[in-house]
Specification:
Elements: H1 2-22, H2 29-35, E1 41-47, H3 50-61, E2 68-75, E3 91-96, H4 102-113, E4 118-123, H5 134-137
Parallel strand pairs: 1-2, 1-4, 2-3
């Protein structure tokens, strides 16, 4: 059943690409990202301390069930995009400056970037053991 689902998703993606090309529309990275099936879970990680954020990202990279994406939100004057290079996960990066109300705008923007069926905020500095998010991904309760 899972194989049929994957084949169906792939067929739909190829059909959309062909239609865009026939219409003379570009097929760029943004288009390809939009055509990918949505992950089961989006983890929103807000960080302002690179070492804590790196520790959390590495624990996410070690998860056994990898049907999730990460939205990394850098706050304040600290830039975190350099941390993404070590991670083998799909990570969308967003940096929010020191403007007033940055936490609210960061959360709203991260929610717009999220493609997962469920969105979960996680803490920077926390290490999540392998398999921690499997319950959420498979539709069960949080572990």
């Amino acid at each position: 059943m899972a194989i049929m689902s994957i084949r169906s998703d792939l067929f739909q993606q190829l059909t959309l690409i062909r239609e865009r090309r026939r219409a003379g529309l570009p097929v760029d990275k943004r288009t390809m990202a939009a055509l990918r099936p949505a992950p089961a879970l989006t983890l929103v990680l807000e960080g302002d301390a690179p070492e804590k954020t790196r520790k959390t990202l590495l624990s996410l990279d070690a998860q056994t069930c990898r049907k999730f994406e990460v939205v990394l939100v850098g706050r304040g004057g600290v830039r975190l995009e350099g941390l993404i290079q070590d991670i083998g996960l799909p990570v969308a990066y967003l940096h929010v400056g020191d403007a007033a109300g940055r936490e609210v705008s960061a959360g709203n923007l991260a929610a717009r970037l999220a493609r997962g069926k469920r969105i979960v905020g996680i803490e920077a500095g926390r290490v999540y053991p392998p398999g921690h998010f499997a319950g959420l991904i498979e539709g069960g309760a949080a572990s």
